From TrEMBL:
Belongs to the short-chain dehydrogenases/reductases (SDR) family. Signal peptide: none annotated. It holds the Pfam family adh_short. It is an enzyme of class 1 (oxidoreductase). InterPro entries: NAD(P)-bd_dom_sf, Sc_DH/Rdtase_CS, SDR_fam. It comes from the Bacteria. Its EC number is 1.1.1.-. Keywords: Oxidoreductase. This is NADP-dependent L-serine/L-allo-threonine dehydrogenase YdfG. The keyword Protein biosynthesis does not apply. GO terms for molecular function: oxidoreductase activity, acting on the CH-OH group of donors, NAD or NADP as acceptor. The lineage of its organism: Bacteria, Pseudomonadati, Acidobacteriota, Terriglobia, Terriglobales.
Length: 256
């Protein structure tokens, strides 16, 4: 399936998996609709995507936690960008790593507002158009954390369990249409994820990946690209992947 000229909407596109996914689709000649909160970083990604071969790039300064901002962004798209073919619902984050009974409520709210509500707001704004046009593919960035809860991560894991349920429910709800729905659920991926989780503490973030060879944003982008280029009658429901150093969220082999 050719992606040349297809409109691909990627949230959380300013760094990490989102930016890597933008480059992967750019290399296929897609037209990229990129959204993120960090406008400066997003501009850098957009420029790089054009160098990688994107037909065109349209950027949106967007915080998915605001349902009004999400709907307005979709409603106000220029006509040439309105018919989104592929949505990569990637925006998400983790904050803090404390026991549930000592966690910061502000961290909980940011994760819930981004990872669950933001996911819903974007899907609600984009999917109706796909159903009407009878074409489209939604890719949700999940996590292995949505399958097995790990200590000191209950709320983050809960948000990813919710993302999994939302993704599965959406697949059921579009049954009878050609719209496809896929969840990509990785284990440890070395991006700014841990730096964000630990509020900028680089030392703590580095320890997460110590002694292992983690997945990269490019690894995840490669899987997303594979999923959306299957024949149109094939729907990849879920892809779960880890590095060879990880069996699940609780079992990780670290080299000395």
């Amino acid at each position: 399936m050719s992606l040349k000229g297809k409109i691909v909407f990627i949230t959380g596109a300013s760094a990490g998996i989102g930016a890597a996914t933008a480059m992967a689709f750019a290399g296929e000649g897609a037209r990229l609709l990129l959204a993120a909160r960090r406008a400066g970083k997003l501009a850098e990604v957009a420029s790089k995507a054009l160098e990688y071969g994107a037909q065109a790039v349209h950027s949106i300064d967007l915080d998915v936690r605001s349902r009004h901002a999400v709907q307005r962004a979709i409603d106000e798209l220029p006509p040439a960008w309105a018919e989104i073919d592929i949505l990569v619902n990637n925006a998400g984050l983790s904050r803090g790593m404390e026991k549930l009974y000592t966690g910061r409520i502000e961290d909980w709210e940011e994760m819930i507002d981004t990872n669950i509500k933001g996911l819903l707001y974007v899907a609600r704004a984009v999917v109706p158009g796909m159903v009407v046009r009878e074409r489209g593919h939604v890719v949700t960035l999940g996590s292995m954390a949505g399958e097995i809860v790990y200590p000191n991560g209950a709320v983050y894991c809960a948000t990813k369990a919710a993302a999994r349920a939302i993704n599965d429910g959406l697949r059921e709800d579009v049954l009878g249409t050609p719209v496809r729905v896929t969840s990509v659920d990785p284990g440890l991926v070395e991006t700014d994820f841990s730096l964000v989780r630990f509020h900028g503490d680089a030392g703590k973030a580095a320890k997460v990946y110590k002694g292992i060879t983690p997945l990269t944003g490019e690894d995840i982008a490669d899987v997303i690209l594979w999923a959306v280029t299957r024949p149109e009658h094939v729907n990849i429901a879920r892809v779960s992947l880890t590095s060879v150093n990880q069996a699940n969220t609780l079992l990780i082999h670290r080299e000395p």
